[in-house]
Specification:
alpha+beta; two-stranded antiparallel ribbon; Muramoyl-pentapeptide Carboxypeptidase, domain 1; 33% helix; 4 helices; globular
């Protein structure tokens, strides 16, 4: 059976949303360990919600651990974007500086998860799923 994937990137007033959906009746779903997050707003210290929890799961998955133990650690992700999440985002942004920071004229991560960070996340997800 063939596997079909369709990806949709919607630009909204508050950010970019990603939906990866199995397409066509009877199509096989693709299984992946990469957290598939729908983030439709900018995230920074103080933000709360499931999108924050998913971002933490992604950062932990990608090797930019939010915390070694307790809140924010792998399997213990929270809905709160605090200083540990900000620090993990900074490390991720610095590692992806050419795509995330340089186009914005920045030389160091800010910890603010906005459209540039999410766009890079989308590229990483698409590559992990083998979607061009």
């Amino acid at each position: 059976m063939n596997t079909y994937i369709t990806s949709r990137i919607a630009v909204t007033a508050t950010g970019i949303a990603l939906a990866i959906l199995p397409f066509l009746a009877g199509a096989q779903a693709i299984t992946t360990t990469i957290p598939l997050c729908e983030i439709t707003r900018n995230l920074s210290v103080g933000a709360t919600g499931e999108d924050v929890r998913c971002l933490q799961r992604y950062l932990n998955w990608a090797g930019f651990q939010v915390s070694a133990s307790g809140a924010g650690s792998p399997g213990n992700e929270t809905q709160y974007f605090g200083e540990r999440t900000r620090a993990a985002v900074v490390r991720w942004q610095n590692a992806n500086a050419a795509s995330v920071l340089t186009p914005l004229g920045l030389t160091a991560g800010t910890g603010f998860w906005g459209s540039a960070s999410f766009a890079k996340y989308v590229l990483i997800v698409r590559a992990a799923l083998g979607v061009a």
